[in-house]
Specification:
The chain is mainly alpha-helical. It contains 10 helices and 4 strands; from the N terminus they run ααβααβααβααβαα. The radius of gyration is 17 Å and the shape is globular. The chain binds calcium ion (CA) (2 copies). The site of one calcium ion (CA) has 7 residues, from strand 2.
Length: 187
């Protein structure tokens, strides 16, 4: 039933970002320094190191959310984030280009990577986001939010959200963007 043919675009390559000038030279230098500082002399960040990069700016516990961030940064799923994955993830998550940013958000929501978002997957992301800002909504409140999201996005009512449904629906509903727009800042 779900639209399995349209897949979310994968993270674009680093060279694409640099070509499109998503980063200035100063930004690149800054990210490179942050990467080096946290990775030591290695060419990658472990999940713990990645958590140090992202974990400072929150009142609550950011670790559950950073776990999801780490997964979406680690595009080759080898358990570490190398510099190219790091920059690509930052570029996607902060992109001015709606499609790029949403494709990255979709990948984060699609926890098992099967190309569809289930209620269960959305609940785990929302819980992680709330935990990060030290809010602890009840099960009913979360269920309500998720039902609202599905009412808006799940157009064919198969209890799963395809990339197509996500992309079209989120653009139309600014409230949904607010829920989604929860990117950690590193400063
Ligand atoms: Ca990796
Ligand atoms: Ca999924």
């Amino acid at each position: 039933m779900g639209n399995r043919t349209a897949k979310a675009p994968g993270p674009q390559s680093l060279s694409d970002f640099v070509k499109k000038k998503e980063f200035t030279q100063e930004e690149l230098k800054e990210w490179s320094e942050i990467f080096k500082r946290h990775s030591g002399n290695k060419e990658y960040l472990t999940e713990d190191e990645f958590t140090e990069v992202y974990g400072m700016a929150f009142t609550g516990d950011p670790r559950p959310f950073i776990k999801h961030m780490f997964r979406s940064f680690d595009s080759n799923r080898d358990g570490v984030v190398d510099y190219k994955e790091f920059l690509t993830g930052i570029g996607c998550s902060t992109s001015e280009d709606t499609k790029t940013k949403l494709s990255w958000a979709f990948q984060m929501y699609d926890v098992d990577g099967d190309g569809l978002i289930t209620k269960h997957e959305i609940i785990s992301i929302i819980r992680a986001m709330q935990c990060m800002i030290n809010q602890h909504p009840t099960d009913e409140e979360i269920q309500q939010t998720v039902n609202d999201i599905f009412r808006n996005l799940d157009r064919n009512n198969d209890s799963q959200i395809s990339w197509d449904e996500f992309y079209k629906g989120v653009q139309k509903d600014p409230k949904l963007l607010e829920v989604l727009d929860c990117e950690p800042q590193t400063v």
